[in-house]
Each structure stands twice: as C-alpha cells, then as structure tokens.
Input
Amino acid sequence: MKDNYLNVLKAIIASTALSAGAATAATLDVAYDNQPGTLDVQRSTNLFTRSMSRPFYETLVTMNGDYQPVPYLAEIIDVSDDRTVYTFTLRKGVKFHNGKEMTSEDVLASMNRWVQVNSRAKRYFADSKFEAPDDYTFVLTMNKALVDVLHVLASWNTAVIMPKEVAESAGEKGLEEFVGTGPFKFDEWKQDQYIHLVKNDDYQPLTEPTSGFAGRKEALVDDIYFHFVSDTATRGAGLQSGQYDIALRMATDDFERFESDPAIGIEKDYLGYLQMNFNTKEGVLADVNMRQAVNAAVNPTEILLGAYSSPEFFALNSCYNLPEQTDWYTDAGSEYYNQNDAEKAKSLMAEAGYNGEEITLLTISDPALESAAIIIEAELEAAGMNVTVEIYDFATYAQKRNDPANWQIALQPFSLNPIPTQWIFFNPGSFGWTDDAELLGLVDQMQNATIEEAKALWPAAHLRSWEYLPISKIGDTYGYSIFNSEKVQGFSTFDQGIFWNVSVSE
Output
C-alpha cells in the first residue's frame, strides 16, 4: 500500500514537472512592421532599436510607470547637497549574458562609450566626470547642478550597460556583440526575417512590483522571435491564424474588426504628440504674428480625425505632457490651443504684412502624416496663406529640416519626454532655432533648479511657449497592438510592447 502511494506521488510530481517544463518552453512570436537599422541602442534612439533591445539591455536608472527616474542596476543613488555629485551603489551579483559579474569598471566603460556615440549624452555630459572608486560604486560629477540628470540617464533606456571589453572593442560601425544583463539574451539576427532572443536563466529579478520599465521582470518564455512583417493586413491575418502571438502597430482602420473578435486582446499605447515645428530663424514665420496666425487657423480635431480615423487614437490636450505626468501637467496657455479661427488668423496675417509668400510644409512619408499635412494645407489656404507640402522619407526630411532655407513648417510626431527641460525645441541650436529670451530664460531657470522649483516655474514657461510658438501642438496620438487573448497573458505596452512578464500557453 505504501509503495503504491509512493508510486502515485512520484507520478504526480513527474507530471507536474513535465507540465511546468512545457509551460516555460513556450515561444513568443511577435510580428513587427519594421526591423531596426541597428541594435546598438547607445548610438540610436530609433523606436525599433529601443523596442527590440529593451529585453536584453538594462540601465543604472530607468523610468517607472509615472515617468519618474528610479534605480535599476543601481541599488542606491546618493546625491550631494550641491546636486553635482551622484554616487551609484551597484547591485551585487548581476550577471552579464556572458556569465561575467557586472562591476563599476563595466559601468564606466559603458558610460564613456555612451557619451562618445550618443548626441544627447555628448551634449549633456561632455564636461562631466565618471569614476569607479571600487567594484560596486560608480560616481558621476557634474560641472554644475542640473534638474534632469537622472531623467536623461533614464530616458528610453539608451544609457545601457555592457561588459567593459564589449564597449571598448566597438569600432566605428558600432557594436559587434549585444551583451547585456536583461531577462532575455540576444541570439540571432536574420536580416529581413527575424531577431531571436532566448531566456536568460541566470537573471535575478527585483522584487518590487512592475511599473513601466522598473520593478520585477521575468522571462516567462524560452524564446522570443521578432518577425519583420511590413504589411499590416499580413500581421493581422498571421495573428488570427495562430502564426503570431502578438502583432504590433496595427492600422487604425482595422480597430473595430479586432475589437469585436473575442479571441483578440488589444493594448493601446501612447505614440507621442503630433505638432508643427516653426522656423523662427528666417522666412515669413520668423514673425511671431504669422506663427500665431497659423496656430489660430488650424482645427486640431479635423486634422487628427483625418490622420488617425477615430477619436480612439487621439486626444485634444494643450499641454506638452500627459495628464499622467502629474509633476509636469499644466493647462497654462490652453487659450491658444484649438482656436479654429480663420478670421483671427487673417487679422494676424495683416498685422504681419503677409503678402502671399510661399510657406513650405515639410513632412515624412507616412499615411497619417501625409493626411494631416493635406488638411493643414487646406485650412491655411482657406485663411489666405500660400502653402506647398513636400513629403520625404525620414532621412531626407531630417536632412532638409536642418537648413532654414528649406522650410517654414515641419510636421512630425514627438515622443514623450519625462521632463520638459529636455524638449528639443527649447534648444536654440536645434531645427526651429528658438531665440526668445523670455522663454529660454525660464527654461534655463528650470534647468538649474531643484525638481520642486522647476515644477513651480513650468506653467509660466509653458504659457510663454504658447505665446512665442516654437511649435504648435496638434494633439496626443495613440496606436494599438493585438494579441491572442486565448494564449497570451501579461502583455502590456509602455513606449511600445513590454515582453518580460509575458507567458504563452500552448
């Protein structure tokens, strides 16, 4: 009797073990509309590079779900009283994917490389000093106190940490190995077909609840395949047939069809906001009255509906930040948003002495942006402006917008920024060439303040920005991804898909 009981118990244990093994042996197949130009995320902040490298790279500081910087590979961050010295105590026992333990030497080499190859890092940390006084301490010394040091380190996970030997061996063309500390490891990139990641069995997750990029991360599948499927209909059909478990960045026109399918789950994600950059340096829009005229003439609702099909995918919001960013959300300047007033535009044009000069609107070859540009063109022409739309691939667009002789309006989306001081249009050297002393003075005060002081200054800066108009915000935009709700558990989005804490049942 005893032997029979033991045999039954052993059978139950074996069956449970097999079941558990089967669960963890699952593969997550993800259909993506594009492949990255590189996985060297220190060099590129491209959306596709960020998204596909995030499961295997990590940073000292990362963003939580409230868009606030919090420690990650660092366990403790001490800041000196004068806010110029940041001492990072590293987590012990963190292993790279090559089996080596992470120490401060690896952090030092990684950060030095980041500052060399990343334009934002170079601009921000060029006069700073990095030190590694012992194996588990990394020190950053700034030449002056700045409000957004941790935000820049955390922004969208570009300051990734890799082994010293990998960072130092990278040539001019970029990294040859992709070795991080994350819950998944890079395995293979088959050009134009897929990127393959495998589970990191040595990963030690944090115990804090998951929040944004922070907190607990677990690899709940053994393999992730990012399949490159450019056609939206093919991605959708592949998910419905069971070929893919998740399909990212789907067409807005198909939303209602997928929403009505009980076997399909939907995750909406914030894409950023659509806006018009203005050339304040030369041409007719160098006159603030003309910028105000353009801003008064446009109808954000009409533009967003034409570009994104449904109110599901946009929100009217005058603030450069989301309501969820409670530190930085403000309605200061909202009276200048969504005016839809052609008569006011005409009055401002007369004040500026506008005489039919051509206004060139640049945008990127993308269905939503092209639709938005055509609607803006019609609205401005209805107010009496002479507008020409020019559409280019992104590389050409990016090159043309750097020459003020080429354009007056540049239409593009902006990704979310965790802190207002990092908006590129507050940089006088960036395209648009903002030169308003009052606005730049307020931003400079914020930059040199504490977080609490900067929060108090931001409404005034935001109001002044709407008066001066380096940009005209049109609205917040959203996309969505779909997943097999009968198989996939735990999928969420935060700056595109999150692939840790996701499981797949067979």
User: Anything to note?
Assistant: Confidence is low (pLDDT under 50) at residues 1-23.
